[in-house]
User: Fold this.
Amino acid sequence: MKYILIFFLVLYGCSSTTTKTESEVDRAQFILLPEFLAMSMAEDGYKQELKKARENKQLNQNDEHVRRVREIGFNIIDQVIFLRDGTEDWNWEINVQESEEVNAYCMPGGKIMMYSALIEKTNATDDEIAAVMGHEIAHAIREHGRERMSTALVQQVGLIGFAAYIANQAEDRRAADVAVQAAVLGTTLFFALPHSREHEREADKLGMELAARAGYNPIAAVSLWRKMDALSNAKIPEFFSTHPSNENRIKDLQAHAKKINHLYLENKRK
Ligand SMILES: [Zn+2]
Assistant:
């Protein structure tokens, strides 16, 4: 188990995870958690989410939603290669969960979940679904989850504490149990921590670029966030609490949509 600690100490990165494009996202990132570990935590966490949803008869119940979300999602995934090498090997997956919660996420490694309420309550157009998908996929390829997990491990759990936690689990339990524990911790870290404003700005820019490259109108991000804004007046949805919206953000979205509109015009869907 000493080796895990050594991994944490040695395998950190301080460079940008995505390719620099005209969206001009190239911040150097501090990432401590090894990629394979983040991926396997996400994979196990996603499996558990699917299992829960399936047991509650909430998984992929509406064929039309599933067809639509997967078509748009995979059109966007086809463009991800422009922003990050190696993502063609990711084990991408898209599912729809019946839920009253207005939410969507993409875990590290490309595990996507769209909640039905996001489509229904906003009466989302294809361009708006593309805006959500682009935004969530951008968080994943930009490794915001892994960055947040890394920061949390240092700040909240502690590097040595985490290694001790894993080691302790390994001594007490079977290997399978350890994997489950790690997945629970990974899922908790993934969901519990809000994105920083900088992460949101990056996901907005790269998400719009992905949508435009896939032929969806990037300005739909503005109408989508306005709809979300209106919904949040009634009841603050989970998604909104981690995705603060304001007029500055809307202005930034409008400016970026204008800048990359040529990508949309070049790839526009008939
Ligand atoms: Zn976000």
